[in-house]
Amino acid sequence: MTPSDEIFDIFDERMNPAGQASRSEVHARGLWHQTFHCWIVDPADGDTDAVLLFQERHPGKDTFPSLLDTSCAGHLLAGEAVEDGVRELEEELGLSVPFEALVPCGLFAEEDVISDACIDREFCHVFLHVNRQPLTQYRLQPEEVTGLYRVPLEQVRKLAQGTLSEPIRIAGVASDENGVPVPVERIVGPADFVPHPGAYYELVLKAIDRIGKSAL
């Protein structure tokens, strides 16, 4: 089955079930569907500030290719529960994490008009996972993720508030020709990130604040 043939549960704008449709039809018609988002937060350590991990989307993606996005995300297939979304952590980043280990941020309804032929309307189930492992220990899914970068929470707050005006330098890993993650650095600005609304980032940041400094 190709990605365009995947079948999703679809909903109306109030999240009432409305049947099922293929991925290609969902995006062509702008139908509401469900996704699983998990942000990995790497806690502060000594003089190092806490960071969120952003994945670099594969250049072949049908939405927002090559931009920096949620650490891990994917669609929920027809019949799947939110708990099934943890498979995305294993597939995209090589992390085996029980659903109970995730911190819920909340549900966020997001609409993106990519083009006349692609309208993405998602009910995003958003979670956090605290993880301290080095970036080189992640196993990136070649067809989905081309890099993984550390962005300090201070800069994420600026991104949420629309005040990230100056380019910033971020460190991360990118897959070499053998799929092995190697250290890299990039200089990025707002245009390099998927344009999530500020309220989306605030949902994540408030969950981090609820965790408290003891966890970070």
List keywords for this structure.
alpha+beta, nine-stranded mixed β-sheet, 4 helices, 11 strands, 17% helix, NUDIX_hydrolase_dom, NUDIX domain-containing protein, NUDIX_hydrolase-like_dom_sf
Give an account of the 3D structure.
By secondary structure, the protein is of the alpha+beta class. The chain has four helices and eleven strands, in the order E-E-H-E-E-E-E-H-E-E-E-H-E-E-H. Strand 1 and strand 2 (17-22) form a beta hairpin. Helix 3 (153-161) runs antiparallel to helix 4. The radius of gyration is 17 Å and the shape is globular.
Summarize the structure.
Residues 31-176 form the Nudix hydrolase domain. This protein has four helices and eleven strands.
Topology:
Elements: E1 7-11, E2 17-22, H1 23-29, E3 32-42, E4 51-57, E5 68-69, E6 72-75, H2 87-93, E7 103-115, E8 118-130, E9 145-152, H3 153-161, E10 168-175, E11 181-188, H4 198-211
Parallel strand pairs: 3-8
Antiparallel strand pairs: 1-2, 3-4, 3-6, 4-5, 4-9, 7-8, 9-10, 10-11
Helix pairs in contact: 3-4
- Helical run tally: 4
Order of helices and strands: EEHEEEEHEEEHEEH
> Percent range for helical residues?
10-25%
Computed Rg: 17 Å
Q: Tell me the strand percentage band.
A: 35-45%
Report the mean per-residue pLDDT as an integer: 92
Strand element count:
11
What coarse outline follows from CA principal-axis ratios? Answer: globular
Give the biggest beta sheet: 9 strands, mixed
Unreliable residue runs: none
The end-to-end span amounts to: 41 Å
Structural class: alpha+beta
Domain Nudix hydrolase: 31-176
Pfam families: NUDIX
Organism: Paenibacillus oleatilyticus
Protein name: NUDIX domain-containing protein
